[in-house]
Specification:
By secondary structure, the protein is mostly helical. It is 61% helix and 0% strand. Keywords: Plasmid.
């Protein structure tokens, strides 16, 4: 028999986070941490880890970039739905819908490149 290919994400290897640390915060400190982590779109754990390693946390997502990201996620959902329909109905019947999605994707990419 042929061997099955393994799917999924590769193993973490040496990058696996196996050690934990418990830290206590006051209510005010925890609220401040939650606010700061939320303002850069990170979890509290990711925020603290980046702050420890780099000494700062940089927010690179502007409001415009977040809007473009939401649009790209929506388009990716449309592409997945179109691919499923193309497999069911045949590609020729889906051509106009695929072209519409590609045009919308092109517009979003143009905005992102500016």
């Amino acid at each position: 028999m042929s061997e099955r290919k393994k799917g999924g994400r590769p193993t973490l290897g040496e990058h696996k986070k196996g050690k934990g640390l418990y830290v206590s915060f006051t209510e005010a400190e925890l609220e401040l941490l939650s606010r700061k982590a939320g303002s850069v779109g990170k979890s509290k754990q990711a925020y603290l880890r980046e702050l420890l390693v780099k000494g700062y946390v940089k927010n690179i997502d502007t409001a415009e970039q977040q809007e473009i990201k939401r649009g790209l996620i929506g388009l990716s959902n449309n592409v997945n739905q179109l691919a499923k329909l193309a497999h069911i109905n045949g590609l020729k019947t889906m051509q106009t819908q695929v072209n519409g999605v590609l045009e919308a994707l092109d517009e979003l990419l143009k905005k992102y490149r500016r």
